[in-house]
Automatic annotation (TrEMBL):
Names of the cofactor(s): NAD(+)
One Gene Ontology cellular component annotation held by this UniProt entry: cytosol
Catalytic reaction equation(s): UDP-alpha-D-glucose = UDP-alpha-D-galactose
Domain NAD-dependent epimerase/dehydratase: 5-263
Keyword Ribonucleoprotein: no
Native organism: mine drainage metagenome
EC code(s) of this entry: 5.1.3.2
UniProt xrefs under Pfam families: Epimerase (PF01370)
Record's protein name: UDP-glucose 4-epimerase
PANTHER family found in the cross-reference section: UDP-GLUCOSE 4-EPIMERASE
SUPFAM superfamilies: NAD(P)-binding Rossmann-fold domains
Length: 340
C-alpha cells in the first residue's frame, strides 16, 4: 500500500531533496509550503525529476484553519516537518518571529495532526542543540544547550515533541540533528538558492566560483585545527534526504521513535572545502583571511554511529561529490540567467 506523506517546507533546500528521495522510495508525497523562502518553480522542477505531478498546498503553519483544511483534504500516514526559519544571525535580531514560526508553528502542526489522527512525525532539528564541547565527535547523549535563538527554537521543538509523545503513546517521532548540509541534486535541478549574500560557507564559495562574489572571507586561520581554519561536518544534501526516508520508514513500519545525528563523522576545514570546490570548478578560488566570526567554534562534527546502527544510514557521498554537484547546479543557474 502506498503511504501518503505531508512534507512541510517541501519546496525549500533540504525539503525539495527529501521530496525527491521519498518519491524514489515509493511514498506518495504532498508539499505544504508558504514559499516565503522557496522559489515558486521548485514544484515544476520536482515534476521533471519524478515524472509525476506534484501536489502543493500553499499554506502557512501559523494559520491553524488552513492547516486543518490540508489535513481534511487527504489522509496522511506521516509528516516530515521542515517548515521553519533557519538563519542563526537573523534569529538574534528577530527572536519573536523565530519562536513564533518554529515553536508556535510546530504546536499548530501537532494539533492539526492529532485532530486528523496522524501520529508519525520526522522533525528537522540541528546540531546547534548541543552545548559547546571540546569532545569530538558529538554523540546524541551529549549535553544540550543553545547559543542562538535559532538553536533555542530547535531544542524547544525537540522537547515539545518529546512531551507530547510521553503523554500519548500513539505518537512516534524521528528527531534528526543535522550537521552542515552541502551539495545539490545530481540532476542539477535542485540546490541551495539564497537571494542575499550567503552567511554559510558552501553557498558563499559557490558565489565566488560563479564570479558573483570576489573572494571568500576565511573567518580566522588561527584556530587549533590542522590548517588553522574552522572544521565542520559537511553532509551531502542527498544523503541527508535519504536519512529522512529511513527515519520515516522506521516510524511507520516499526513505531520506533528516535533522536539521531545525521552527519558523516568526518571534519573538513574551510580551506579543505575551498580547495575541493576549486577542483570541482577547475579554477583556483581566491580567499582573504578575515577576523574570526563571533560565536564560531573551532571544530564541530558528529558521531554518526547511532544512525547507522538503528537505520543502517551512512553518508555515501564525499566532499568531491558535494562540490561537483553544487558547481553543476550553480553553473546551470548562472548560464540560464546569462541567456535570460
Ligand atoms: N566560514 C568562513 N567564511 C564564510 C562563511 C563561513 O570562513 O563566509 C567558516 C565558518 O567560520 C565556519 C565554517 O566556515 O568555520 C562553516 O560555517 P557555516 O556558517 O557554513 O556553518 P556553521 O558555522 O553554522 O557550522
Amino acid at each position: 500500500m502506498t503511504r501518503k506523506i505531508l512534507l512541510t517546507g517541501g519546496a525549500g533546500y533540504i525539503g525539495s531533496h527529501t521530496y525527491a528521495a521519498l518519491c524514489e522510495a515509493g511514498y506518495d508525497v504532498a508539499i505544504l509550503d508558504n514559499f516565503d523562502n522557496a522559489r515558486p518553480d521548485v514544484p515544476d522542477r520536482l515534476e521533471v525529476i519524478t515524472g509525476k505531478p506534484v501536489t502543493v498546498h500553499r499554506c502557512d503553519i501559523l494559520d491553524p484553519a488552513a492547516l486543518a483544511r490540508v489535513f481534511a483534504s487527504d489522509h496522511f500516514d506521516g509528516v516530515v516537518h521542515f517548515a521553519a526559519r533557519k538563519a542563526v544571525g537573523e534569529s538574534q535580531r528577530m527572536p519573536l518571529e523565530y519562536i513564533e514560526t518554529n515553536c508556535t508553528g510546530l504546536i499548530n502542526l501537532l494539533k492539526a495532526m492529532r485532530a486528523a489522527e496522524v501520529f508519525n512525525i520526522v522533525f528537522s532539528s540541528s546540531a546547534t542543540v548541543y552545548a559547546p564541547t571540546t569532545d569530538w565527535p558529538i554523540p546524541e547523549g551529549a549535553a544540550l544547550g543553545y547559543a542562538s535563538t535559532y538553536a533555542y527554537t530547535k531544542l524547544m521543538g525537540e522537547q515539545i515533541i518529546a512531551q507530547v509523545a510521553a503523554a500519548d503513546p500513539r505518537w512516534h517521532y524521528g528527531v534528526l540533528r543535522y550537521f552542515n548540509p552541502a551539495g545539490a541534486h545530481t540532476s542539477a535541478l535542485l540546490g541551495e538558492d539564497p537571494s542575499d549574500i550567503p552567511n554559510n560557507l558552501m553557498p558563499y564559495i559557490a558565489k565566488v566560483a560563479t564570479g558573483e562574489l570576489p573572494a571568500l572571507n576565511v573567518f580566522g586561520n588561527d584556530y587549533p585545527t590542522p590548517d588553522g581554519t574552522g572544521v565542520r561536518d559537511y553532509i551531502h544534501v542527498m544523503d541527508l534526504a535519504r536519512g529522512h526516508v529511513l527515519s520515516l520508514t522506521e516510524l511507520i513500519e516499526r513505531g520506533n521513535s528516535h533522536t539521531l545525528n545525521l552527519g558523516t563523522g568526518q571534519g573538513y576545514s574551510v580551506l579543505d572545502m575551498l580547495n575541493a570546490y576549486s577542483r570541482a570548478c577547475g579554477k583556483e578560488l581566491p580567499y582573504v583571511v578575515a577576523p574570526r566570526r563571533e560565536g564560531d567554534l573551532d571544530c564541530y562534527y558528529g558521531d554518526p554511529t547511532k544512525a547507522e546502527a538503528l537505520l543502517g544510514f551512512r553518508a555515501e557521498r564525499g566532499l568531491d561529490a558535494m562540490c561537483a554537484d553544487s558547481w553543476a547546479w550553480v553553473s546551470r543557474k548562472s548560464n540560464m540567467r546569462g541567456q535570460g
